[in-house]
Amino acid sequence: MLVLVSTAVVGAAVALALHLSVPLLVVAGVAAGLAALAVEGVVASRQPDDDPAGNGAPGGRVKLLDTSAIIDGRIADIAAAGFLEGRLVVPRFVVRELQRLGDSGDAQKRGRGKRGFDMLERLQGLNGVSVEISDDDAESGEVDLKLLEVARRRGAALITMDYNLNRFGDISGIMVLNVNELANALKPVVLPGAVLRVHVLREGKEPGQGVGFLEDGTMVVVDQGRRLVGQEVAVVVTSALQTSAGRMIFGQPRVDGQGDGQAG
Q1: Segments making up each domain of the chain, as ranges
Q2: If 53 and its partner were Cys, which of 47, 155, 192, 249 is the partner (CB 3.0–4.6 Å)?
Q3: Is the pTM of this model over 0.70?
Q4: Three-state SS string across the chain, please?
């Protein structure tokens, strides 16, 4: 409106100065104002969206949490350490799934449901972490499909521990953050020749093999380790294999003077 009034006044002033028809130049001025408004509208409509996820969360896009990530609980540690930016969103249908677990007649499921609510409460209590319980929903009856649809609609990332949901999200073009993949990426590098202390727990699949685990859960396959089951031994690393399920380390019992130092 201000643009229209301004152009009309300018048109009248020009008409008086040049002894021209005032009504004609006023009309011309109004037309010019309308054109300016139209151009302004087009330019505004083409401006990039500063918040494509529509969440207004500083520092990053919205991140949806699924049931598995909440129950696992490590996401709370990551958030507490300051490595997780943006708003965390928990749809109510995920909360209802936790409730169903908590009300289950199976003790193990009840325990998972209780842990999920404990972890959610911890997340909500963290300073600097924004947690939203959202009413977002989708037509699909399955929780996983609902999550994918909500993530697509909000332009959000999806945090999960579920391998199949991870794969489905990747195929669907949705950013998926898998806590297990992060944990694997943060495991220290173990090079051939390093020496590990390993408690050999059981026999391996191949003849003579023994199997143990590091503190972070990494499996260590010990060649000729069957005879050492039940013992803690020094193992020299010979190779390592990264799989979709995690990392496996292969080694052999240390002989005096073998290896290049203690790795863990």
Answers
A1: 7-38, 63-185, 189-253
A2: 155
A3: no
A4: CHHHHHHHHHHHHHHHHHCCCHHHHHHHHHHHHHHHHHHHHHHHHCCCCCCCCCCCCCCCCCEEECHHHHHHCHHHHHHHCCCCCCCEEEEHHHHHHHHHHHCCCCHHHHHHHHHHHHHHHHHHHCCCCCEEEECCCCCCCCHHHHHHHHHHHHCCEEEECCHHHHHHHHHCCCCEEEHHHHHHHHCCCCCCCCEEEEEEEEECCCCCCEEEECCCCCEEEECCCHHHCCCEEEEEEEEEEEECCEEEEEEEECCCCCCCCECC
With CA atoms as reference, report the closest residue to 199 among 219, 170, 172: 219
Distance CA 144, CA 243 (A): 25
Q: CA 58 to CA 70: how far, in whole Å? A: 22
Residue-wise pLDDT tens digits, 81-126: 988 888 999 999 999 999 999 999 999 999 999 999 999 999 999 9
Same fold, 63-185 and 189-253: no
Give phi and psi for 69, each to the nearest 5: -70, -35
Interior/surface letters 44-82, b for 16+ CB within 10 angstroms, e for the rest? eeeeeeeeebebebeeebbbbbbbbbbbbbebbeebbee
Each residue of 133-168: pLDDT tens digit? Answer: 998 888 777 888 999 999 999 999 999 999 889 999
CATH of domain 63-185: 3.40.50.1010
